[in-house]
Specification:
Number of helices: 19
CATH class of the largest domain: Mainly Alpha
Number of strands: 23
Number of domains: 5
Largest sheet: 8 strands, mixed
Structural class: alpha/beta
Radius of gyration: 31 Å
Strand content: 5-15%
Length: 697
């Protein structure tokens, strides 16, 4: 230590010291001047501070990072402080060095303030799901020697997964699902393989290729669950995962993986749950993967083939250079490879000889007609789509903008400046035959409401290809995009704007239930399109009626995974008005809380109520920004909306309100702070209490 040489230099002469016995002579060199003793005492704390306890590290590094820059302290993290007994720090478990857990089941333990200062106590787990954490993951999480589990799912954490997290020597469970984490996956996470059994990163914005472990022979024998679904990972299938023979569950769905599925995946005989849907995987499935359901592979490149998919593998002779007609026909033959930045439609014209079918109108209704029918198929056009021709639709050019298990969505530009349309190509094997589809699409097309996206046309080709034609909305204009994928410069999502979106979607559903007598079937934030005036347009209603049972059940499985499925709904055939109400309740909670619904939002609200959590800890922080100077009725409106959402999510279907009742309640609680604010947000027609609401009298 630097103090000791300095103090020895100030030592008085030996002659000034009383004589010491011979055996005590070494003590003379240790006798210090009083000022030296003081300096030594001042230096001692510097030596002991290096060995900080886990509690001190938690307070100094972890809590500020998880808290973020919000103006108000997080209610859960606020309990982490030196004036609160350690047993009352929420979401944490502790243990002694001999692995005995700290018992907090006695009154004495729950009142003991000294435990937080005990350097022997070790942090064992952090469990704060759905706790409104809005900060980042601190690198210091990797410094806890006994930390075995981290559960931080369903929060609003941003930034990267820290590289140092791979240094946590005892970590065996890591769940960071349903946050807003971004950037690449750090290679260091595979350093945890000796102990890690459960790794869940579902529903973030992690991107890039999944990196292999640094060690070439890493097998991660302990890993049982690996969930990387619903991110933005790209590149080829991460083939090194096939060496993880201990896996029971593997989820890579809803990413951007491409290319073939490696044969070695078939050798993972312990794998029980596999989901590779909604990627761009291609080629022939290894035969042993037939033991999994078809839903595990839906939504990939059309050339993906083999059991359990219904697509049969056939030889391919090369690329097609035709327009949309050639593309959709080629899809059925598995002979087209999609380009990485476009839908693979060529700019050349389709030059085959066209023949008019004079009997094409024989099956037409009063509200639709055939624009054309020839060797390439048949185009039914509906109200608002009369300007479309078969040539224009089949020769349009564009790009992929979205993918689902049952369809691929394209932004298509019509030739000659004819505008932009949206095409939904129903995947091969997902759709019923043309004779069954025709009456369904006519019924869908008859639904006309200001808050519904209207069906403009329907194409079915000679070989079974099927296209739904809609007006185009940018994908960034979906409610999901506004809430979870916003750019920094985007418009603020104030409560009046969110309320307007919710009311528009509610009116569309009320119309479908009362005027059309049918359910929507797939209510979710990605199907709510929002225009520049924040008017909601509900898309894809009743499309599940076009699907074969297996594909319809894949839609249901996606709704379950994403949190929109009503508890009583076990088959799409049982879908009805009350299940739509449940999904709308989840949608309303999503609007209020700003969180992805996969995290069981109703449960998070119930926990907040039981723990008497402050309202600002439950609701989206951005939503509250505009209410700081608002009058009390604004907060009351939020509480009413939260109560309405929970009523819609009632576990018992009969206890849920009808959509007409939901519309009335939303209208009664519509924000109207000033006449100017309201008139700027709502048009005169929208301000009417009965606008867009069916007469249920």
């Amino acid at each position: 230590m630097p103090c000791l040489p300095h103090c020895n230099a100030r030592q008085p002469p030996a002659s000034a010291l009383p004589p010491l016995p011979h055996h005590a002579a070494p003590l003379r060199s240790m006798m210090l001047h009083p000022w030296c003793l003081l300096l030594l005492l001042l230096c001692l704390p510097l030596a002991t501070a290096a060995a900080s306890s886990d509690a001190a590290l938690l307070l100094a590094k972890v809590r500020p990072a998880l808290q973020g820059q919000g103006p108000n302290p997080n209610a859960q993290l606020a309990t982490w402080n030196a004036s609160t007994p350690l047993c009352l720090w929420r979401g944490l478990r502790w243990a002694w060095p001999d692995a005995r857990p700290l018992r907090c089941d006695t009154a004495a333990a729950r009142a003991n303030l000294s435990l937080a200062r005990d350097p022997a106590l070790l942090l064992l787990s952090i469990r704060l799901p759905a706790a409104a954490l809005a900060g980042t993951l601190p690198p210091d999480l990797g410094a806890f020697s006994a930390l075995a589990s981290i559960y931080l799912a369903a929060n609003q954490l941003t930034g990267p997964v820290p590289l140092d997290l791979g240094n946590a020597p005892a970590l065996d469970a890591l769940d960071l699902s349903s946050n807003r984490l971004s950037g690449p996956l750090p290679t260091s996470l595979w350093n945890l393989c000796d102990r890690l059994a459960d790794l869940r990163l579902h529903g973030n914005a992690l991107a890039g290729a999944v990196p292999p472990p640094a060690g070439p022979n890493t097998t991660c024998d302990s890993l049982r669950v690996l969930d990387l679904g619903a991110n933005r990972f790209s590149g080829g299938f991460p083939s090194f995962l096939t060496a993880f023979r201990g896996l029971r569950r593997l989820d890579l769905a809803d990413n951007r993986f491409q290319g073939p599925i490696p044969e070695a995946l078939a050798g993972m005989d312990r794998l029980q749950d596999l989901n590779l849907s909604s990627n761009n995987l291609s080629g022939q499935l290894p035969p042993t993967l037939a033991r999994f359901t078809e839903a595990a592979f839906l939504g990939n490149h059309p050339s993906l083939c083999g059991p359990p998919l219904r697509t049969q593998c056939v030889s391919s002779s090369g690329l097609s250079s035709r327009g949309v007609a050639a593309m959709v026909i080629g899809l059925m033959a598995a002979a087209v490879v999609l380009a990485s930045v476009s839908i693979g439609w060529a700019q050349g014209r389709w030059t085959s000889r066209r023949r008019r079918d004079n009997d094409a109108n024989a099956q037409g209704g009063d509200d639709d007609h055939d624009a054309a029918a020839d060797d390439d198929g048949r185009l039914l056009v509906f109200e608002g789509g009369e300007h479309l021709t078969l040539d224009e639709v089949l020769n349009a050019t564009g790009q992929v903008v979205d993918k689902a298990a049952h369809c691929t969505v394209y932004k298509a530009k019509l030739a000659g400046g004819g505008g932009t349309i949206e095409l939904r190509l129903l995947r091969e094997g997902c759709c019923k035959d043309a004779a069954s589809c025709a009456p369904v699409v006519r019924r869908i097309a008859r639904a006309r409401h200001p808050n519904l996206v209207p069906l403009r046309a329907f194409y079915h080709g000679r070989r079974g290809e099927k296209l739904l034609v809609y007006d185009y909305f940018p994908r960034t204009r979906t409610l999901h995009g506004f809430l979870h994928e916003r750019d920094a410069g985007g418009p603020p999502l104030t409560w009046p704007r969110r309320h307007k979106v919710a009311l528009g979607a509610a009116r569309a559903l009320a119309y479908l239930h009362a005027a059309q007598g049918e359910a929507h079937g797939n209510v979710r934030s990605s199907n709510v399109l929002v225009d520049d005036l924040f008017v909601a347009h509900l898309a894809e209603h009743a499309v599940d009626r076009l699907l074969v049972p297996a594909a319809a059940e894949a839609v249901l499985a996606a709704a379950k995974a994403d949190g929109y499925k009503a508890p009583e709904l076990h088959s799409m055939r049982r879908c009805g008005a009350r299940t739509d109400v449940y999904a709308f309740g989840i949608l309303l909670l999503e609007l209020l809380m700003g969180r992805k619904p996969a995290a069981d939002l109703p449960a998070a609200v119930k926990v907040a109520v039981l723990e008497e959590t402050a309202l600002e800890e439950v609701l989206d922080a951005e939503l509250l920004k505009g209410l700081r100077t608002s009058p009390a009725p604004a907060e009351e409106g939020l509480l009413q909306a939260l109560k309405l959402a929970m009523g819609c999510c009632a576990p018992v279907a009969a206890a849920r309100p009808t959509m007409a009742e939901v519309v009335r309640q939303l209208e009664d609680s519509r924000p109207s702070r000033t006449l100017q604010t309201r008139s700027a947000l709502y048009s005169p027609a929208e301000s009417r209490s009965d606008a867009g609401t069916p007469n249920t009298a």
